[in-house]
Design brief:
Largest sheet of chain A: none
Strand order of the largest sheet of chain B: 1-2
Largest interface: A-B, 92 and 88 residues
Oligomer: heterodimer
Number of strands of chain B: 2
Number of strands of chain A: 0
Structural class of chain B: mainly alpha
Order of helices and strands of chain A: HHHHHHHHHHHH
Helix content of chain A: over 70%
Distance between the termini of chain A: 50 Å
Helix content of chain B: over 70%
Structural class of chain A: mainly alpha
Order of helices and strands of chain B: HHEEHHHHHHHHHHH
Number of helices of chain B: 13
Chain lengths: 279, 331
């Protein structure tokens, strides 16, 4: 009986530690989000969305950074999504059993978690150094490189979930594969494919490191793709590390905006995914 | 009659021709689409090749100038153009180790709670919360670390650590010096918080692959919940867990923004964990746009190459482990 008691006590002890981990882990994350909302909401005002980033010591907003982020994210996703979807289509449809697919899947998974600052260096080497100046285009290209693996992964996964009987039925009618993929595969996996794109946008919208030396930053409003452009993450980086109170407060507000965007996108993606009919 | 047949033939022939040309068009478009997707798949490989090639090309001047000494030199002096990677590499490894030492046990605890203990009603919301947190950009953790966590550590924790360990042989060097707030330890803890949701969500997925029969059998012979976890769940999922931990480590090594805010950017290797240091990614993020001269830029790119090689190896091991787990499942 003594042995049994000590085993039970040990079990209780370790499970108690697990419980403690949950409290500390989730509590800590809640604390971070709490501070973010508190600091971010304190200074939010219409000026944030209507005025440019200010010089040190005066008030202003984040309009140029928000617009810059929107432009570069849109462009990056617009370049990365078709490429990623086509590659994912090859892996799930034409080349499902080919060796190339195994290799691409492996490499893609590595690119998926590769340090994003290295992607920034890559784009700096191939675009910024060749063109001789920083540009929004280079920033968008860096984001596209980050989008591609995310979209490849979800496209392949979602197409593999489409039952083969559907494809076989369509093939039996004599349709070529490209039409089967377009009218059956993509249509059946539509919710999943949209989820993938949303997740890619979420991933990209908070990326800072690859933008620092591709799009650089810009204190003024600019829509010129061939010139440096401001972005929310880059502005947060610059403002948070500055000694000026106004800048630091704007950094908090920007951080809140990014977090809200990312959370909204992930929640929408999740809702879409759960709508998907059972396999 | 003969007349009718002739009309039929005449009517069929164009139809047949139309059918044939439509089929040929189908075939052409199918081949074109096939080649297009194939090209896209190759693009992924070319991207990786491009990243490696451009990093090697970019770091050539530094490799030529310093050779292998680059790895073992601590000095980093842009004025005299003497560069060495030792301090950033050391910082990267130490902060990642601190992060993993904190994050892995906590993540396993949370994953065990989610799969074995949590009431069914709570399982889904808590799981979703963790996955949402895994998506929060690292710059958020960085800004929180800089404005909230570092001042807190400086005022309340670090002085206590310094005075508590002042007489103890090894610990007194690890926790020595003035309490800056920012430094290697702070960066490690912030990284831990950032990696926690990633490792947790993989561990939970892996734990869920354990067949219920195995656990039920263990319970039936009288095992306690902890014994089931220790002797059935963890051994069964070992390969996948290592994969998940490696994935977290890969993220921690390459993480830039969360670290850059709180590490202090000092190019030296200090024995104290409270001293400011630097990591590879923080060095690149801070200095790249201000780097003047080819050698300086090249040295920074060489740092990027080192980082990429390290994370590539770690991530490759991680993916290999996770792939083996999927094969195991399929069997």
């Amino acid at each position: 009986m003594a042995i049994y008691d000590s085993r039970r006590r040990r079990s209780k002890f370790y499970l108690g530690l697990c419980f403690l981990a949950v409290i500390i882990g989730l509590g800590w994350l809640a604390l971070i989000l709490g501070t973010l909302f508190f600091e971010g909401l304190r200074n939010i005002s219409p000026a944030v969305f209507t005025q440019m980033t200010p010089p040190p010591g005066s008030g202003g907003g984040l309009l140029n950074a928000i617009v810059g982020s929107l432009i570069m994210t849109t462009l990056g996703v617009a370049i990365g999504t078709p490429l990623g979807m086509l590659a994912g289509t090859y892996m799930a449809e034409y080349g499902r059993y080919s060796k190339l697919t195994v290799v691409v899947r492996f490499i893609n998974d590595i690119l998926l978690s590769a340090p994003s600052i290295v992607i920034g260096l890559f784009i700096y080497e191939v675009m910024v150094a060749k063109m001789g100046h920083f540009s929004a285009l280079a920033g968008a290209a860096a984001l596209a490189v980050i989008v591609i693996p995310v979209v490849v992964r979800t496209t392949e996964d979602m197409l593999l979930l489409v039952p083969d009987t559907l494809r076989e039925a369509a093939r039996a009618l004599g349709l070529p594969r490209s039409i089967v993929i377009g009218k059956v595969g993509y249509r059946a996996a539509r919710a999943g494919l949209i989820t993938g794109v949303l997740l890619a946008i979420a991933r990209v919208s908070g990326e800072t490191a690859p933008l620092l030396f591709t799009a650089l930053n810009n204190q003024f409003f600019s829509t010129n793709l061939n010139a440096p452009m401001a972005s929310l993450p880059a502005v947060i980086f610059q403002f948070a590390l500055s000694p000026y109170k106004e800048w630091q407060q704007l950094a908090w507000t920007g951080a809140l905006l990014i977090t809200l965007t990312v959370l909204a996108l992930s929640i929408t993606a999740r809702a879409l995914q759960s709508q998907r009919p059972a396999k | 009659m003969a007349n009718n047949l002739a009309i039929d033939n005449a009517g069929l022939k164009p139809a047949e021709a139309r059918l044939a040309s439509a089929l040929a068009g189908f075939k052409l478009r199918d081949t074109a689409f096939h080649l297009l997707t194939l090209a896209a798949a190759w693009t992924v490989l070319i991207l990786l090749g491009g990243v490696i090639a451009s990093l090697i090309l970019g770091s050539m001047p530094a490799i030529k100038a310093f050779g292998l000494n680059f790895l073992s030199t601590e000095a980093w002096n842009p004025v005299t153009e003497k560069f060495g990677a030792m301090a950033p590499v050391y910082g990267t490894v130490v902060t990642s180790l601190i992060a993993m030492a904190i994050a892995v046990p906590s993540a396993l605890g949370i994953a065990i709670f989610l799969t074995e203990l949590c009431p069914f009603r709570l399982r889904k919301p808590v799981g979703i919360a963790i996955e949402l947190l895994a998506g929060i950009p690292s710059i958020i953790y960085g800004i929180w670390g800089l404005f909230v966590f570092a001042p807190f550590l400086q005022e309340h924790i670090q002085p206590v650590l310094i005075s508590a360990f002042s007489g103890v042989p090894i610990l007194s060097t690890l926790f020595a010096g003035p309490p800056y707030g920012i430094g290697v330890l702070t960066a490690g803890i912030i990284l831990a918080i950032m990696v926690l949701p990633i490792v947790t969500s993989i561990s939970r997925d892996v734990f869920e692959t354990v067949p219920a029969v195995l656990k039920e059998a263990a319970y039936a012979v009288g095992c306690t919940t902890w014994e089931v976890v220790r002797s059935v769940v963890i051994p069964y999922t070992r390969v996948g867990l290592i994969g998940g931990v490696m994935l977290g480590l890969g993220r921690a090594l390459g993480e830039t923004m969360a670290v850059t805010f709180v590490i202090g950017n000092a190019h030296k290797i200090a024995p104290s964990l409270l001293a400011p240091g630097t990591t590879i990614s923080a060095t690149i993020a801070n200095e790249f746009t201000e780097a003047v001269g080819d050698l300086y830029t090249s040295a920074l790119i060489a740092l990027g190459l080192i980082l990429f090689v390290i994370t590539f190896i770690i991530l490759a091991i991680s993916r290999y482990m996770l792939m083996r787990l999927h094969q195991q499942e399929g069997r």
